[in-house]
Amino acid sequence: MTDQIEIHKGLAGVVVDTTDISSVNQETNSLLYRGYPVQELAAKCSFEQVAYLLWHGELPTADELEGFEAVERGQRALRPEVQALIEQTPVSGHPMDVLRTAVSLLGALETRFPDDERSDYEKSVRLFAQLPAIVAYDQRHRHGMDPVPAREDLDYASNFLWMTFGELPDQTVIDAFRVSLVLYAEHSFNASTFTARVVASTLSDLHSGVVAAIGALKGPLHGGANEAVMATFSEIGSADRAEAWLEDALASKKKIMGFGHRVYKNGDSRVPTMKAALDSLVDYYNRPDLLELYTALEQAMGDAKNIKPNLDYPSGPAYHLMGFDTPTFTPIFAAARVTGWTAHFIEQQAHNSLIRPLSQYTGPAQRGVRPTGRGLG
Ligand SMILES: CC(=O)SCCNC(=O)CCNC(=O)[C@H](O)C(C)(C)COP(=O)(O)OP(=O)(O)OC[C@H]1O[C@@H](n2cnc3c(N)ncnc32)[C@H](O)[C@@H]1OP(=O)(O)O
Ligand SMILES: O=C([O-])CC(=O)C(=O)O
């Protein structure tokens, strides 16, 4: 009877639970965070307001925002143990490895002070405050540059750029960066968030969930694609070579990074907003060549496969123009997504059922053990 079992490879199309946090709707091509269209949030809200919304279910009042910002800004400084860890990790390690290891250390430091027991929400806000500092410290360390201390007078997005570059860019750049963070913050049961929920379902701790989620995000079929887009652009070189490059790549069965999506089959709802942010950066940095390459590959992919870009396609070149190192792109994604991951971790534990699917066994039939070597005797 086993041949009648329906296998849902990759859990494609399977609804495994409910969530109040966000809805990704492929029919209407929309993404809502707690009911609000993400495009409106990107146009009207700071990243702190969006983070608060994801955790609390409502946008903050002025007083609530003031209190939330004060807590976040007060926890930006890295402990010496975390700074030492970043400095000691070999630079051959990917920045996602550094981030994953640093979050693991932060988890160990949380439990070192049992009198200081914080709720998962409080731990989430602390992670939210710390991740930009880790990412910025690591990028600067790799260039042999001194770290730049956080500034409590700056909002989250501005301070992230300040700590990375040691100067504040023009408002155009800050806006584009803030928009990218809002768009990256949450996307229902994507692979990394589902990973965090699996960890949550065993009643493990929040930092373990985030460490596991960082591991899942790193892969090029998920968050790692924003870095891979820049590798593709470097390989192609210029717009006039895009079509021929794509023909070769598809002929050798390569997946084209930054294109396609498990849920959206008609284009990613977030791409128009991020593309507008990229356009503003292209104008600001006067890089029409990059836009030409972007457009040429998008058109060629549309003609060849009718597959559309996902959010990683415009985000990669946007971060490149801002001056981030390519391997830092996915850690930025992680810093934004820690809001969604932790909101899901908390939601999973509030309505928990251990996540443990079944599999259909296809290995050898039962057989007796007949050791051919020395055996036990
Ligand atoms: C923020 C994010 O994480 S968004 C996702 C970022 N990831 C990427 O950009 C990586 C590239 N994209 C992909 O690999 C895929 O589109 C995924 C993994 C995102 C989604 O994949 P799935 O839902 O499993 O679709 P699947 O891989 O079955 O693709 C369906 C068909 O489209 C093709 N296809 C889908 N995406 C691509 C792509 N990027 N390049 C080439 N072909 C593609 C597949 O080869 C397949 O063709 P076939 O039916 O002829 O075999
Ligand atoms: O939803 C997904 O599968 C991937 C994605 O776009 C995201 O995590 O932002």
Summarize the structure.
The protein contains 16 helices and three strands.
Note down, in words, how this protein is organized.
With 377 residues, this protein is mostly helical. It has one domain: Orthogonal Bundle (Citrate Synthase, domain 1), CATH 1.10.580.10. It has 16 helices and three strands. The protein has helices at residues 38-44, 47-56, 62-73, 80-88, 95-111, 120-142, 156-165, 171-184, 191-201, 206-218, 225-236, 242-251, 271-285, 288-305, 312-322, 329-350, and strands at residues 22-25, 30-33, 36-37. A three-stranded antiparallel beta sheet has the order 1-2-3. A hairpin with a 2-residue loop joins β2 (30-33) and β3. α1 (38-44) runs antiparallel to α8 (171-184), α6 (120-142) runs parallel beside α7 and α13 runs parallel beside α15 (312-322). It is globular and about 70 Å long. The mean pLDDT is 96. The active site is at 261, 312. One of its GO terms (molecular function) is citrate synthase activity. Pathway: Carbohydrate metabolism; tricarboxylic acid cycle; isocitrate from oxaloacetate: step 1/2. One of its GO terms (biological process) is tricarboxylic acid cycle. It catalyses: oxaloacetate + acetyl-CoA + H2O = citrate + CoA + H(+).
Short descriptors:
binds oxaloacetate ion, Citrate Synthase, domain 1, 3 strands, 377 residues, Citrate_synth-like_lrg_a-sub, Citrate_synthase_AS, 3% strand, globular
**How many beta-strand elements?**
3
CATH topology: Citrate Synthase, domain 1
Q: Report the oligomer.
A: single chain
The CATH architecture term is Orthogonal Bundle
Secondary-structure element pattern, one letter each: EEEHHHHHHHHHHHHHHHH
Ligand species:
acetyl coenzyme *A, oxaloacetate ion
Name of the CATH superfamily: Citrate Synthase, domain 1
Task: Determine the fraction of residues in helical runs and give it as a percent range.
Answer: 55-70%
Mean pLDDT: 96
Low-confidence stretches: none
State the helix count: 16
Report the sheet with the most strands, covering strand number, pairing sense and barrel closure: 3 strands, antiparallel
CATH class: Mainly Alpha
Strand order of the largest sheet: 1-2-3
SS strand fraction: under 5%
